[in-house]
Each structure stands twice: as structure tokens, then as C-alpha cells.
Amino acid sequence: MPNDGVGRTSILNAGFRFAHDGPGVATLPPRPGEHTKEILAEPGLSS
């Protein structure tokens, strides 16, 4: 599922392998500004 806010992206994985259940990309990256309100709310700021 493409993310129009990010465009084409290369994602590097870890430089090692696990026997099972290793690191990977399970979801798309957040869109720019998607979490701004939550991040600003932590120190008590507002958007």
C-alpha cells in the first residue's frame, strides 16, 4: 500500500538474521505530521 506523503523509499533491515521472527517491515511509515498532535501533547504543547 503506497504512502503518497513519503514517496518511494528504501528501508534497510538489520545486518543479521534470527533463526525465526527477525526484524522486518510490518507496517508503512507514518505520513509527515501524522503524529504531531500526540508528540506535542506529551510535554503539554498544542499544535
Notes on the structure:
The chain is mostly loops and 47 residues long. Helix content is 13%, strand content 0%. The longest helix is centred in the last third of the chain and has 6 residues, at 36-41. The chain is flat.
Give me some keywords for this one:
single chain, 47 residues, little secondary structure, 1 helix, 0% strand, CoA-Trfase_III_dom_1_sf
Compact description:
This protein is mostly loops. It has one helix at residues 36-41.
Helical segment count = 1
Any low-confidence stretches, pLDDT <50, length ≥5? Answer: none
List the helices and strands in order: H
- Alpha carbon gyration radius: 15 Å
Estimate the helix proportion, in percent: 10-25%
**What would you call the quaternary organization?**
single chain
Main sheet characteristics: none
- What percent strand? under 5%
**What is the typical, i.e. mean, pLDDT?**
78
The backbone outline, from C-alpha atoms, is flat
Question: How many distinct beta strands?
Answer: 0
* Class by SSE composition: little secondary structure
The termini sit apart by 28 Å
InterPro entries: CoA-Trfase_III_dom_1_sf
Region (Disordered): 22-47
Any chance you could write out the topology, listing elements then pairs?
Layout: H1 36-41
Region (Disordered): 22-47
InterPro entries: CoA-Trfase_III_dom_1_sf
